[in-house]
# Entry
Amino acid sequence: MTDKSRNPFDFKYFVGIWPRDKRSAEQVVREIRDGAGSKPDNPDLDGTDAAHPAWWRGHDHGSGMMTRTVLALFDEPLDGPGVFGNPELELIRQKIRELRRKANGND
# Structure
């Protein structure tokens, strides 16, 4: 089977699973292309088991980025310039620098 035959917009993709209902191949392809049947986004469900999958992907990406950023703060020079634009992240940066100074005896 070639990669072309795995294209979900190609009728060959449906060979072997067709027909499971009365819809035509063209109708199913159109529904897939247009997102019909996809889970609607409801912001009230964010952070719950019923949240849209994209919310969880964004959550995972943001958590990973934040973890890498905070870990990098332990390795940055203590006298390094710069600040974070986010006030909460800047506060974390300052606290980590303060802890590092105390740990090094530079109180």
